[in-house]
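Before a colleague's protein record goes any further, I have to sign it off. Alongside the sequence sits a line of tokens, each denoting a local backbone shape. I want your independent view on whether this chain really folds as the tokens say. Where you disagree with what is written, explain briefly why. This is what I was given:
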Amino acid sequence: MSLDAPVAEPRPSGWFFTRISLFWVGLSFMWGAVNIQVLPSVVPDMVGSDLQGTAIGAIVFVGLAIAVVVQPLAGAVSDRARFRVGRRRPFMLAGVLFVIPFLVVIGLTPYYWLLFLAVVGVQVGGNIAHGPYQGVIPDQVPPPARGRASGFFGVANLIGTILGAAVAGQFLAEGQVFAALLTIAVVLVAMSVMTWIFVRESPPPPPETYGPVWKEVRRRVRELRGKQAFVWLMGSRLLFFMGLQSMDNFLQLFIGQGLGDESPEGKTTIVLGTVLILAVLTSIPAGWASDRFGRLRLVATGTCLGLGSAVLLVFAQDFIQVVAFASLLGIGLGLFTAADWAAAIDLVPDARAAGLYMGLTNVATAGGDALATLSAGIALDVVNQIAPGYGFRAVFALMGLYFLLSVVVLGKVRAHVHAAPESRVLAPEAREAR
């Protein structure tokens, strides 16, 4: 299957979408387990409860700051690769092999500084794999089917996240940290092997003569000055993920300390399971809808549902309320996941550098996670010092603020698409107005 041609299949099948999404299950399984369950479980024992939020935020911030650099660079290198087996899969496999020893260290270390370094190592390897992988949809899926492909990618991401959080939570509840990390490694390797077998690609001839990678990245970033819709979409995406991760990475602490529950790992899995199951059920039909009714409408609707969820969570008093209020976020996440990814692909300035540009989208995804975890962690510790027990309310308030700003910034995307619509499926109302 050529990577510079639209796609070998005129009508991609469900099996086609499934097999190109397998690798996402492994990546999201790893991060769902590490960020949602492992770090909140082990960090408080290492640094104490007074600094737990800041300590978790620092690990996530530094690790994801590295990801913001590594992922687009890895994507750019894969764009120009000419391996006989393809230009994406070799980097995906190399990144996974790099990750494994650092997962072992996370499972064994009792020291915060070593945990910190190990998470950074996992970020480096994971994003060596992730950057090239993000070029798969623009490589192999034609524009009319990208909404459906993004829906499948979203489902794979959500399934991996909930399975990772659930499996790791079960092991951690029994005090088996190393077993949790070993399971993560096994799943990640299994998904990598399946991807290598089921995803076929052939190396295309280079579309142009490339210079050094750093110069290529600088040139492509300069091109973004004339592609304001793509830039504003990344800003909106950044703020959405800041809202989402403000809840995800501190949910276990809120249930255990804020609500006084004695089994926070299991209850965290129930809440996130509800959110992600609803997102999965919403994502595939939302991908179909985004191909027909417009990406930006669905992104805006999903973000507004996230805002409503955050406002309600500020006032949540028990576990049942948390599940009910978070369910609204699940529906919004499904809408957002299906449509936003497809919108980003539609707005890629140059399809020949799809790996690099889709890697740059991680400035929003990983950057949002990093900024949200650090800011929410600091807010949690500071507010708890001033008014004990209210730190988690401050976290949910920040969550709502980030979703609100995401909707505002999305308006700038719509304005630029209306002025010069790059894709007929981004904002159909632009054509109606003309």
